[in-house]
């Protein structure tokens, strides 16, 4: 099954909702970064959440960045998403290895620890929107829920899950994101809160064969759920040798002279997808010429 995001409304527009199945994109991210199981879960949850947040944006060129900086062994994660289901991202430390938590699950909260969640939205305005909150549990879904409540003043319910098999491969990944719009009635809030606590975990629902549509049906079936559209989702990176060249050209003249002085070709890896780009000395010398005299 391909990865996709469902967008829906319910309760006469008092609720907006998203759900995603993201096994393939999480698998691709895990392969690109050679992540340990707990980091596959951490990166996969954040990618799945960001993908749903991305489709909330309207502009073709809008870009969302979700960054976690944390004190746990994972140190941090960065992911980006656009409005068309394209996501990419990377962990600061990809091989964190921890025993399971008290529930016998991958200990994402232990890998992240305390920290800060930042959301940056480049919506083509003069200044990007930036919101920041503390991590609540480091389990990511709860942290995004807290972010929405505090930073965007939007009461939300977020569920995210990545199931990693014994061999380290991704067996299931996905999630949901439900938001209450201004003016929502107390009855709707009460009933929804009950529903959210009643449903099985995201990974249980996905393992049971539930599609994103069916997950939303379980949560919102009693609220006149209406599917608005679906959007395919992918892990994809827009890096290129040319882009990496531009990054190298932002080095100081002294740094670049030093690299050239070593006399060896260098390999530069894209942080987001780990693709390696090789630069021969001649190419580095050409880049050096573009940045002016010795600083
Ligand atoms: Zn890349």
Summary, kept brief:
With 295 residues, this protein is an alpha+beta fold. It is built from ten helices and 13 strands. The structure holds zinc ion.
Question: Describe it for me?
Answer:
This protein has two domains: 4-235, Hsp33 domain, CATH 3.55.30; 241-290, Alpha-Beta Complex (CBS domain Like). The chain is globular, with a radius of gyration of 21 Å. The mean pLDDT is 95. The strands form three sheets. The protein has a six-stranded mixed sheet, covered by helices on one side. The protein is α+β, with helices and mostly antiparallel strands and 295 residues long. The chain contains ten helices and 13 strands. It binds zinc ion. Zinc ion binds at residues 237, 239, 270, 272-273, 275.
List keywords for this structure.
295 residues, alpha+beta, Hsp33 domain, CBS domain Like, 2 domains, 6-stranded mixed sheet, 5-stranded antiparallel sheet, 10 helices, 34% helix, globular, binds zinc ion
